Amino acid sequence: xxxxxxxxxxxxxxxxxxxxxxxxxxxxxxxxxxxxxxxxxxxxxxxxxxxxxxxxxxxxxxxxxxxxxxxxxxxxxxxxxxxxxxxxxxxxxxxxxxxxxxxxxxxxxxxxxxxxxxxxxxxxxxxxxxxxxxxxxxxxxxxxxxxxxxxxxxxxxxxxxxxxxxxxxxxxxxxxxxxxxxxxxxxxxxxxxxxxxxxxxxxxxxxxxxxxxxxxxxxxxxxxxxxxxxxxxxxxxxxxxxxxxxxxxxxxxxxxxxxxxxxxxxxxxxxxxxxxxxxxxxxxxxxxxxxxxxxxxxxxxxxxxxxxxxxxxxxxxxxxxxxxxxxxxxxxxxxxxxxxxxxxxxxxxxxxxxxxxxxxxxxxxxxxxxxxxxxxxxxxxxxxxxxxxxxxxxxxxxxxxx
Length: 402
What we know:
24 strands, 16-stranded antiparallel barrel
């Protein structure tokens, strides 16, 4: 019933937008640039409405002297409705993104009133002076590069194990963004963020302290074409080498979840267990003439990773501390076909009970019918899971983006 209510609200919003043609212009852009664009009659506001979804088929097997226990599934991996534009002035922009698929809305918790998680992004962006932009609302934190890259613009079917283990994802807070040039070409971008530290769509008060994130990016050869530093693949075929080096540090004060602002809540006999959690990210993106290479490193530490009751006894919950390394490369053998490869290593702390090191090897193939807006992607992954059974995974996905 709640999902149906969201559907009705989204449909009504689109109908209202279409029906108000007397007060604004409606432009039907070309494929991939939104369903339609609205511009206020007095040019004091605008709205672009977009829709995208991904249809995913997977098959996986256990690998132990042969293939066994096969499983397969099909699902709508993601389905998103997006609104963005400006309000009152082009210096005040906004973005709203709603998740419509079951996977988009999963993760409700009894500690947040079992509320569905419809809202992905709801953020205002105010360019108040020069190159300074203030963001306020719920959106992605400036953590690892792979997470900030939209799921619509990925080089392979989905993100790596490093992202799923260490990402700090979305949160509610304030971000200050700025950029400047050291030379005519050398560009520097800085981001400073203060967030609630509880993740997205929280309905209750802050359980611990706040979350502080800083990120600096260096572009020694200048900026990428079409924001290519946050898009998989070199679809722009950069005519000269482009490189972005990223450094990010996140500190979550008195965090109560197993993965900083992500994961499960850690409870004890007095309510919630909390500890300070720090996460470091180092990454780089390189592109030139159809070739791309991305590397990411993540490391998470905690003051005390093992949740305890008031008497010092262990609760069984623990912070996932450790490190991860991801190497990913791709080459466009034509303007529309790309082969890609990825290696990911996850090394959780040996004191974490039952945690195994993981090595994953992935080979991917993509057909870009209309860039990232319409593409077919497939990949095959082999995962070596330490002392557990190794796994083989095949995926096929179709992505369409209006």
